[in-house]
Amino acid sequence: MSEAQLAAKQQTLNHSQQLLSRANQGQELANTKCAGLEQRLKQVTAELGCLRQNAESARHSAEQRLRQREREHQQELQELAEQQSGYQMLEQESREAQSTASHQIQQLQREHLELQATVDKVTAQKQLVDRELQELEEKVDWAVGELAAYQKREADLQREKQLTLEKNSTCQGQSTQRLLQLEAQLTRMEQDLTWSQTSREEMRGRQCFSST
Question: Which ranges form a coiled coil (predicted)?
Fold first, then answer.
């Protein structure tokens, strides 16, 4: 083998060694890069695990909040239904109370009219009684005056009767007739006196009744 060939082979060998060295350097760089990538992959995997765990925890928490919100919503709906039922009951009670109050007002109005009619009737009766009482008082006053006059006439007749009895026997027939007339007149006066006393007692009784 000639020197030229050896030199060419040496040059080729050197070139190959350079390429191998470069390849080794590239391999080392690739290995380093792969190690870095593997480390990064582990970190990313760990981060993904944390994120997955956090996401699962967040999902679980969100589901719990959602279920809690649904329970609260159901409770609010139930409370709203109860309030609506209460409002309906209050409206029904209000309508019943208004109807009862209306009936009571109408009843009171009827009773007021009846009471007013009774008051008017009693007032008219009182006015009538007052007029009758006034008339009776006038009659009593008249009866008292008549009684005094009758008593005076009775005394006069008694005196006249006594004088007549003392007259002469020759006038006995006339005196007897006159005496009978006087006795009849006296009887009528006594009857009138009795009527006057009875009227006065009735008047007093009606006055007592009216005052009560």
Answer: 27-167
